[in-house]
Design goal:
By secondary structure, the chain is an alpha+beta fold. The chain has one helix at 79-106; strands at 10-13, 21-24, 29-35, 38-41, 118-123, 130-135, 145-150, 153-159, 164-167, 175-184, 187-188, 195-198. Strands 7, 8, 10, 11 and 12 form a five-stranded antiparallel sheet that branches. A four-stranded antiparallel sheet has the order 1-2-3-4, with no helix packed on it. The radius of gyration is 45 Å and the shape is rod-shaped.
Length: 204
């Protein structure tokens, strides 16, 4: 009758000295071996069931080996895995580029820029008002409306078929700067060159 050993199952130094560690299942040594943390199977005959140090051919208790944790093989990335990862990244980048292109194409700034209004000048100047006039752009899409800027601030707008704007409620003997912007859809043109106008003195 074989005397059971008290050595718990686990990884211990290989008694056959062919590998670093061999797995002891609590009763016999198994073909499961480990070298440098990588598990494998010993293709040769499994070592004797008796632990090292026991008399040959006789069963005996296994000596208590030092406590060792079962080695765990670190994941190794294969070339195929890396290739799949690179292909996935390239596909994601390509999709993002296509989406960005569609957004730019559909966005207002992807539309044709309206031409700049020409020959901005003033007429009918009084102490409290100025009539600003301009010529429509010579090129570009159809103008839907014009924006009038006074000192860099939008003060009003007119339809694209109108080329003048009367600014009222001004202060007498004061300098003002005017610019005109053509708008087509949601796209603004480059502002026109500015004109500087000084209102008249009030009548005596």
């Amino acid at each position: 009758m074989t005397t059971p050993t008290m050595t718990p199952a686990g990884w211990y130094p290989d008694p056959s000295l062919r590998h670093e560690y061999r797995y002891w299942d609590g009763t016999v040594w198994t073909p499961d071996v480990s070298d440098r943390g990588l598990p494998a199977t010993d293709p040769e005959l499994r070592p004797p069931t008796n632990p090292p140090g026991a008399p040959a051919g006789l069963p005996g208790p296994s000596p208590e080996p030092p406590a060792l944790s079962r080695p765990t093989a670190a994941p190794v990335a294969t070339r195929a895995g890396r290739r799949r990862w690179v292909v996935a990244v390239i596909a994601i980048v390509a999709v993002l580029l296509v989406i960005a292109g569609l957004v730019i194409w559909a966005a207002p700034w992807g539309s044709e820029l309206p031409g700049t209004p020409n020959a901005v000048h003033q007429q009918a100047r009084t102490s409290t008002s100025v009539l600003v006039q301009w010529d429509p752009p010579a090129t570009g899409p159809t103008v839907d409306r014009y924006l009038i800027l006074r000192d860099g601030i939008e003060i009003g707008s007119v339809p694209g078929t109108v080329t003048s704007y009367k600014d009222t409620g001004l202060t007498a003997n004061t300098v003002y700067e005017y610019r005109v912007v053509a708008v087509s859809g949601d796209v603004w043109s480059i502002p026109s060159p500015s004109i500087v106008v000084k209102t008249l003195l009030p009548p005596i």
